[in-house]
Amino acid sequence: MTAGQPTVLVVEDEPAQREVLGYNLEAEGFRVAKAENGEEALLLVDEEQPDIIVLDWMLPNVSGIEVCRQLKTRSDTRNVPIIMLSARSEEVDRVRGLETGADDYVIKPYSVVELMARVRAQLRRARPAAAGLRLEFEDIVLDAETHRVTRDGQEIKLGPTEFRLLSTLMEKPGRVWSREQLLDRVWGRDIYVDTRTVDVHVGRLRKSLTATGGTDPLRTVRGAGYALG
Ligand code: CA
């Protein structure tokens, strides 16, 4: 069961570097997917839906720059942070890397400690609940580190699925999530669950959130899915 655990896609053609990166990211608690070239990276992005991508610039055939450019023009992948790795140190290349839409840029040889810090920083921005932060929406407070939820100061008890559901919704208030997207994010892609299960758990979450007398913060969007606020 890997739902809720952030996935990092490592794209690096040099096997030793790929393994070291994967090892260190797993030690940090991430789920790691690895690609050794640009084509494989693009396939794995669809299969694994990574939360962040560490992307080598110099790859055979489809370069890292091209992978980055493609992902940043697709509406479904545009918001996935990309950290580019490159042996190039010229300022002009750095600028070019950022112009393709990369969110950060690290020059080889890099310090693993520094790279991990940058991965965490990008993740805090893109997936605050997965990074263990405290999220707030109106009078609802979710502490991803202690797994506690309060509403208007009163503790709300949630099951593990409802907790993951609420953290997902609280990361992007106002965003409408389809049932399929919630299944992927909350239950994980490896598990077969019927989309009606989403409705059941949204119902339970609603009940818990309104138990202390507050209004229902969840919105059902007909034909589309659910949103918070
Ligand atoms: Ca390379």
Automatic annotation (TrEMBL):
Gene Ontology biological process terms in this record: phosphate ion transport; regulation of DNA-templated transcription
Where on the chain is 4-aspartylphosphate found, per UniProt? 56
Domain (OmpR/PhoB-type) ranges? 132-229
Places the protein is found: Cytoplasm
Task: Return the InterPro entries for the record.
Answer: CheY-like_superfamily, OmpR/PhoB-type_DNA-bd, Sig_transdc_resp-reg_C-effctor, Sig_transdc_resp-reg_PhoB, Sig_transdc_resp-reg_receiver, WalR-like, WH-like_DNA-bd_sf
Q: What does this protein do?
A: This protein is a positive regulator for the phosphate regulon. Transcription of this operon is positively regulated by PhoB and PhoR when phosphate is limited.
This one is known as Phosphate regulon transcriptional regulatory protein PhoB
What is the originating organism of this protein? Marivita hallyeonensis
Upper lineage is: Bacteria, Pseudomonadati, Pseudomonadota, Alphaproteobacteria, Rhodobacterales
